[in-house]
Amino acid sequence: MAAIPTQRETDSRAWDAPAYRGAGPRAEGCATLPGSPLAPGSARALLRAAFAEWADQGLTLPEGSARLAADAMAVVSELVTNAVVHAGTEVEVDWCLEETGAFVVQVRDHHPARAPRDPAGGEAWYDMPEHGRGLRLVATLAESWGVTYRTGAKTVWARLPAGGRDRPDGPAPEHTLEAAEALAPQPQRPGDGRDWLGRGALSFLAEASDLLAGQLDENLVTALTGQLIVPRLADWCAVWLEDEATVRGGDGSAPARVWHASENRIEELARALEKGPPCPRDGLRSGPEPYPWPGDALGPHGGHGTALAYRLIAGGRPLGTLVIGRCGLERFPDEVTGLVEDLGRRVALAIGAARQYARQATISAVLQRGLLPGAVAEIPGMSSALVYEPCDKGGPSGDFYDLFPAGDGRWCFAVGDVQGKGPEAAVVIGLARPWLRLLAREGYRVADVLDRLNQLLLDDATEAADAAARALVAAGGRPVVAGDGPQTRFLSLLYGELTPHDGGVRCTLASAGHPLPLVLRPDGEVRTAARSQTLLGVVEDETYTSETIELGPGDSLLCVTDGVTERRSGSRQFDDGDGLARALSGCAGLSAELIAERIRRLVHDFGGGLPEDDLALLVLQAE
Question: Is this model's pTM higher than 0.70 or not?
Answer without folding.
Answer: no
